[in-house]
Backbone:
């Protein structure tokens, strides 16, 4: 009985160890020629969105596409390409979607100016509503004699 328990424990420990290795994700390690290039590459990878994950930048994503793009950014930084060239390469390949901060162009005016327009529209509606409430709130509601009598009866009954 004791041997069976030990064997079961050993098998469980091996399976647990194997499962831990399978769940581990590899970490990209790039050897940069200078700390400045490393900072540039990390900055660019933070600014670029993963085309597959959609809501993660290249650093945060574990997808194969993000891994390939991190390698591409690393190579281009090491080759001495400028940040604008790298961003241009990525946008030409994957479109404006890869930019977390899209450029201000005619096709992105709605994206940049839409929130401001909605805020102004909401402020205008609020201003009109408040102004209407103030102008109509000054008039007292007049009750007919019958309504006043019913109100008086209700108030007397509650006392």
Residues:
């Amino acid at each position: 009985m004791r041997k069976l328990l030990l064997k079961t424990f050993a098998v469980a420990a091996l399976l647990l160890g194997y499962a831990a290795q399978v769940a581990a994700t590899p970490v990209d390690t790039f050897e940069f020629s200078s700390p400045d290039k490393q900072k540039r590459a990390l900055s660019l990878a933070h600014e670029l969105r993963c085309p597959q994950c959609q809501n993660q930048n290249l650093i945060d994503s574990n997808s194969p596409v993000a891994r390939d793009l991190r390698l591409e950014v690393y190579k281009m930084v090491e080759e001495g390409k400028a940040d604008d060239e790298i961003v241009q390469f990525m946008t030409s390949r994957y479109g404006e979607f890869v930019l977390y901060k899209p450029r201000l162009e005619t096709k992105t005016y709605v994206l940049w100016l839409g929130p401001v327009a909605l805020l102004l529209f909401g402020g205008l509606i609020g201003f009109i509503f408040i102004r209407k409430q103030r102008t109509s709130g000054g008039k007292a509601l007049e009750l007919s004699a019958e309504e006043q009598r019913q109100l008086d009866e209700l108030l007397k009954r509650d006392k």
